[in-house]
Design a protein that fits this description.
The protein is an alpha/beta fold. The protein has 22 helices and 28 strands. Helix 1 packs parallel to helix 2, helix 4 runs parallel beside helix 6 and helix 13 packs parallel to helix 15. The structure holds iron/sulfur cluster.
């Protein structure tokens, strides 16, 4: 039958062509006049890519509730820019909702120059600042500011507004008993805690009438111990509907929550039951967002009746034609988001913050720059079918060059394919599929099992070497050639059976990923213990495996981005991986590994030692071709200091864009 995603839908008085919206994303360039052309180009491209409606990045209603690189409604020029933006979206044939927010105790005084506001003066783990308790005058000012935002949205022509009431921002702080300790009418009972949110909705209705429709982003579950209960949330949802809200968008988890909500480790659709319980309590449409990154998950949640609309955000960064391709049933051509956060959330949360891009789509954040077709089509050889080579081949072919891609292995993907064995990274194979399909469609010649000689490369006009990296083996380390020593590549490719006392040397990103891989692999082993126990045999048959991670640095998994690192470390801790921090490995014996720091020496027993001691470029050939054929080196072939797919893909894109 026809996909439920393609059915027309309605939010209040607003008709929408289908059920795939684009969720709010902060791009880190908002509010800057000279970035407006880029902002417009970014949204226009997503309109053309089929979004039924786009929800804008969050716009602060008052200055102390915003942050770095964010629109604020009290800035006259920001209003002018937003007006130009909605015009551009309309001219492209799209629809857009304006998201109104106040960050409350998540705002940083270092960015706003003001003391943050909150219902009660409770410090936030996120900012380590104690906010000021809002006075009744502040509350009245806030209500007016939200209503003014809605009036502005209506006059500028926005198709809807979304009130940000989840993820632990100010309105969510009022609802939660954890952050609302007020003793006046805006606290205590659920009625008191909901009051401000309901009054804001009513005030908007009074000022702006029935248009634009109001979407309220409600927190489906804060995932904070002792916060709003499920029953309270359902009651709040009903009351929002009664107050005039036209749709509920269900947000999940506070930024302070210790439950991962946005990482690849979260199962797809994991929070759908929460949205479903809210949908059962109200009669207005419900929108779901978290971890809906494939058309299959989206379709399933609609078919099950959990939600009425999907509003994924990051998948639109990865593929600006997300909805269009789904509607055209071009699943093979879809570039899926990996939930890696490496070039999006980790950029906005970095110090200093950087504008958003995307690991799998280096064009994200650069939509205003058009890459012209090549003046003269050249014959281009790309050597290496990892992501750097794949991206270079794709961009060069898109520009009209005749591209041949050589890959030494029998499959494409390189280190990216190896990494796809790590828990939560199986989706990396989708990226390789996307590149393969794109290259096929562009007519790129792909030659697997081939390491081209200089004679073969000589006839090409340009040669791009993307031969990647191989594991670095510290040759001078005593015992490094013993038979129980192997590399991360041996483990991840499955060519080495696992030991029982495993010591991983190297506590960087790869070492930590390998530990995680082994933990998950062990869970999948046949249940030896159960087999014996069910037959009455004892615990002496209990298979025990120990995993020890030796890290030189005190900071384990140092290179991993802030949104993923804590999740990974928590997984290792939960799984009983022993971490030996601040020790270097000095020798390997047949019995184990010697490690030391400045004050002591320790021996760790091991029947298997896995080297995660970095990578080195496959330089011999790359350097040779560089000298002989003026080849360009990209990705790991140019710099192996840290495996960074985002950088490799970006570098490949930029090089091929200029060839
Ligand atoms: Fe998705 Fe990663 Fe791209 Fe962010 S950087 S949009 S998480 S693929």
């Amino acid at each position: 039958g026809e996909s439920l995603l393609f059915r027309p839908g309605r939010i209040g008085s607003l008709d929408l062509n289908h059920r795939i919206l684009m969720g709010a994303m902060h791009l880190g360039i908002e509010g800057q006049r000279d970035s407006l052309p880029q902002l417009k180009a970014f949204y226009e491209e997503r309109v053309r890519g089929g979004a039924a409606m786009i929800i804008s990045g969050n716009v602060a209603v008052l200055p102390e509730g915003g942050g770095h690189g964010m629109f604020c409604l009290t800035e006259a020029d920001h209003l002018a820019q937003l007006t130009e933006l909605i015009k551009a979206v309309h001219n492209a044939g799209g629809k857009m909702a304006l998201q109104l927010t106040h960050w409350g105790r998540y705002a940083k005084s270092s960015e706003t120059g003001r003391t943050p506001w909150a219902p009660s003066p409770i410090a936030s783990r996120l900012t380590k600042e104690t906010p000021a308790e809002m006075t009744l005058a502040d509350i009245a000012k806030l209500k007016k500011a939200f209503a003014a935002g809605a009036t502005f949205a209506a006059s500028a022509g926005f198709d809807a507004i979304e009130i940000m009431g989840s993820e632990g921002y100010l309105l969510n702080q009022f609802v939660s008993p954890l952050t609302n300790k007020r003793t006046d009418g805006y606290g205590q009972s659920l009625d008191g805690r909901m009051r401000l949110c309901l009054e804001i909705v009513e005030e908007i209705r009074k000022q702006a009438g029935n248009d634009p429709p109001i979407i309220y982003r409600i927190s489906g579950d804060d995932f904070m111990e002792g916060s709003t209960t499920r029953e309270e949330t359902l009651e709040f949802a009903r009351r929002l509907e009664q107050s005039g809200v036209d749709a509920l968008n269900v947000g999940i988890g506070w930024h302070e929550s210790s439950l991962p909500t946005v990482g690849a480790i979260v199962p797809p659709g994991a929070f759908a039951h929460i949205a479903a319980s809210i949908r059962a309590a109200v009669s207005i449409p419900v929108i779901g967002a978290n971890r809906i990154h494939t058309p299959e998950t989206a379709e399933q949640l609609l078919a099950r009746g959990d939600i009425d609309f999907v509003a994924p955000a990051r998948p639109w960064l990865a593929d600006p034609a997300f909805a269009q391709k789904i509607i055209e049933s071009d699943r093979d051509g879809l570039n899926l988001c990996l939930s890696c956060n490496q070039a999006c959330l980790d950029h906005t949360l970095g110090h200093p913050p950087k504008p958003v891009s995307c690991l799998v789509n280096p064009r994200a954040g650069k939509e205003a720059v058009t890459i012209p077709p090549a003046d003269k089509p050249l014959a281009i050889a790309v050597v290496g079918g990892g992501v750097a080579g794949l991206q270079a081949a794709k961009t060069a072919a898109e520009r009209g060059h005749h591209v041949t891609l050589f890959e030494a292995d029998n499959r494409l993907g390189g280190q990216f394919r190896l990494a796809s064995h790590i828990p939560g990274k199986d989706i990396f194979r989708e990226t390789i599929r996307y590149f393969r399909v794109s290259l096929e469609r562009l007519g790129v010649t792909i030659r697997l099992n081939t390491s081209p000689s200089m004679q073969e490369l000589n006839p090409f006009d340009r040669v791009i070497m993307a031969t990647g990296v191989q594991p670095y083996i510290p040759e001078t380390l005593e015992g490094v050639d013993l038979p129980h020593v192997c590399t991360y590549a041996d483990i991840l490719s499955g060519t080495r059976p696992l030991g029982r006392q495993i010591v991983i040397v190297g506590g960087g990103g790869i070492g930590s990923d390998v530990a995680h891989y082994i933990v998950e692999k062990m869970k999948l082993q046949p249940h030896v213990q159960t087999f014996f126990a069910e037959r009455g045999y004892g615990s002496e048959h209990h298979e025990t495996v120990t995993i020890t991670l030796v890290s030189r640095s005190e900071k384990v998994a140092k290179g991993v981005g802030p949104t993923s690192r804590w999740v990974l470390l928590a997984e290792l801790k939960r799984s009983g991986v022993q971490i030996v921090k601040g020790y270097r490995c000095t020798a390997i014996t047949s019995e184990g590994v010697w490690v030391e720091n400045d004050s002591e020496k320790r021996f760790l027993k091991a029947d298997q030692v896995v080297l995660c001691t970095g990578q080195r470029s496959r330089t011999e050939m790359a350097e040779f071709m560089k000298e002989q054929l003026h080849a360009d080196l990209i990705g790991g072939a140019s710099d192996a200091s840290e495996l960074n797919a985002a950088r490799a893909i970006r570098q490949a894109y930029e090089l091929a864009a200029g060839v």
